[in-house]
Amino acid sequence: MTIPNLSKEIENAATIGISGHIRPDGDCIGSTMGLYLYLRKVYPDKAVRIFLETPAAIFGCIKDLDRIEDASNVTDRFDVFFCVDCGKDRLGEAEKLFDSAARKINIDHHISNTGTGDVNYIVPTASSASELVFDLFDKDKLDEDIAKALYIGIIHDTGVLQYSNTAPKTLNTVAELIKFGFDFPALIEETFYEKTYLQTQIMGRALLESMLLMDGRVAVSQVDKKMMDFYRVDSKDFEGIVNQLRNIKGVEVAIFMYETAFQEYKVSLRSGGVINVSKIAQFFGGGGHVRAAGCNLTGSFHDVVNNITAHIEAQYKELNA
């Protein structure tokens, strides 16, 4: 896919908006903040604003994170609006700003996104949205703060360069970013591996109460509202649980869900690659990648598990047909 010419796309824009998906993860935050910092630096005459839900505290090392705005009560019409790391349907409150913009640009790497902008840079084989944002930049105009943001995004969506979405191009991109001399081992430790005591407790509880299904090929766990209230945790504290379930020997698919309201669940799916969890998530109105996807489902915990495992079984049957 042809890389958009960033300077041409925004040359006549006086106002530029940027947003990413609800419940922003490391890649969403890294890619949108990297774009924000670059545009603010290279085009100081343009009014650039960024709209996201409040990021987790671990990302406080990214410059100007306090400039992130809540889109709820904003009615401005932007000349250009960037939707990054998702399709417009996952922008939450910022979707209206994207829809009303004169020029809409969608940058994403999710296979379920067919493109929701006037300009679409959608590359499902890319490691991350941060890698795609890097493609847009004049490399001579990068600085340490921009590089740090993009680096954080890449390491979070590649599991510190261990997932199968890590390609030679990804490693080349990372090599260019760490040339700026920031302490990248510390960024990995502080934003990816380090957990609070409560986060460690809730992960332990989720793993303790997990169960294996389908001859040990599927691992499932949940955290309900009662448990969240007891441990005083929220969705930002669940990072890594679904991946830990997937790391269990013999497990090919991991399902982790937490209750957002009575019998309403946010579901995360991980696969070793045999099962396409993006296909399952899309069926239920979600999306993602072949190996990592998510969706929202209603019903009891057992209803949700039965609905998802039925699709896993169907894929196994197709593979063995």
Care to describe what's here?
The chain is α/β, with parallel strands linked by helices and 321 residues long. It has two domains: 6-193, inorganic pyrophosphatase (n-terminal core) (Alpha-Beta Complex), CATH 3.90.1640; 197-320, Diaminopimelate Epimerase, Chain A, domain 1, CATH 3.10.310. It is built from twelve helices and eleven strands. The chain has helices at 6-10, 26-42, 95-100, 129-136, 144-157, 168-178, 184-193, 197-208, 225-231, 241-246, 277-283, 301-320, and strands spanning 15-20, 47-51, 80-84, 103-108, 119-122, 211-213, 218-223, 253-261, 264-271, 287-288, 292-298. The strands form two sheets. A six-stranded mixed β-sheet has the order 6-7-8-9-11-10, with helices on both faces. Strand 10 and strand 11 form a beta hairpin. The chain is globular and about 60 Å long. The two termini are 35 Å apart. The mean pLDDT is 96.
